[in-house]
Structures are given as C-alpha cells and as structure tokens.
Amino acid sequence: MAEETSADSSRQMRVDSALVRELAELLAANELSEIEVEDGDRKIRVKRELTVAAAPATMVAAAPVLATAPIAAPTEAAPVGDALPAGEAVKSPMVGTAYLSAEPGSKPFVGPGDTVREGDTLLIVEAMKVMNPILAPRAGKVVQVMVANAQPVEFDQPLVVIA
C-alpha cells in the first residue's frame, strides 16, 4: 500500500511511481514492514502487511538422530520425489535465504542448461545481513536449481545440481 500526503491537499499531487517502486524493493530487501520518506511538503509512505505463523504452544521431545539427514521437502523449483537429479549437488554451507540473482528483477546467475566454470557464482545465500556467494565447485552444466528465489534454506540443503 502506498500513500502520499501533502500540507496543501487542494493541489493535484503527482506520484513518482519509480520512487514508490524503489521504496517497495527496499522494504522487501531489508525485511521491513513500512518505510517513509519526506521531500519538502511531500511525504511518501510504503507499507506492507506481514503474516506471522503461530508458534507451537509446547515443545515436543526431539526425535532420535537418523544416520542420514532427510532431504528437504520439494519446492516449486525442486524435482518431484525424493531423488536428486544425476550430478553433484552444491549444498548450502549455512542457514539463510537464497537469492538467485544479484538484485530484484535482474537475470538469475544460472539456470538449468547453463554451462558454468569452477568459481562461477551460482546464487547468493544471505545470512545475518551478509550476502555470501555460492560458487561452482567445478566446471559443468547446471542440471537443476533446487531452490526458489528468496527461499529460506537450511545448512547442507541441496541448492544446485551440476553434471
């Protein structure tokens, strides 16, 4: 939701849609619920409604540790089923949020079918406001991107499969 107010409400106000869009991107990128800027007698406020998932009321005893960790539930970018596609899975070295491109609206670093060289950036994992590039461990062809943009990821979760 974007609002624009003025000390003189009788005159027609022009909305700077590029500024509103930029503010909305800042809002999302910094996980804010509201941002407001003033320029003379013009004030622009961009606000978004956040939904919060309810936390469980009680703690449940932890299940015994398994010999192998289960693969995370498939996302819209992941294959259906439990098996990973053939190739080497590049896994997340940390808990964070995966970003497929350098900035909102820009082209993803890689996609299925792309050829990568060792050291190429595959995606970024943001952890504690630090952007950590995830690099290709070797040259090859991207078989599948296993996460969606802005998706939370866990430690050791498969991110990209390279053949």
From TrEMBL:
Family annotation (CDD domains): biotinyl_domain
GO molecular function: acetyl-CoA carboxylase activity
Record-linked Gene3D superfamilies: 2.40.50.100
Keyword Lipid metabolism among UniProt keywords: yes
Ligase recorded as keyword: yes
Pathway: Lipid metabolism; fatty acid biosynthesis
Keywords, sorted A to Z: Biotin, Fatty acid biosynthesis, Fatty acid metabolism, Ligase, Lipid biosynthesis, Lipid metabolism
Pfam families: Biotin_lipoyl
Domain Lipoyl-binding per the UniProt entry, residue ranges: 87-163
Described function: This protein is a component of the acetyl coenzyme A carboxylase complex; first, biotin carboxylase catalyzes the carboxylation of the carrier protein and then the transcarboxylase transfers the carboxyl group to form malonyl-CoA.
Protein name, UniProt field: Biotin carboxyl carrier protein of acetyl-CoA carboxylase
Organism: Sphingomonas arvum
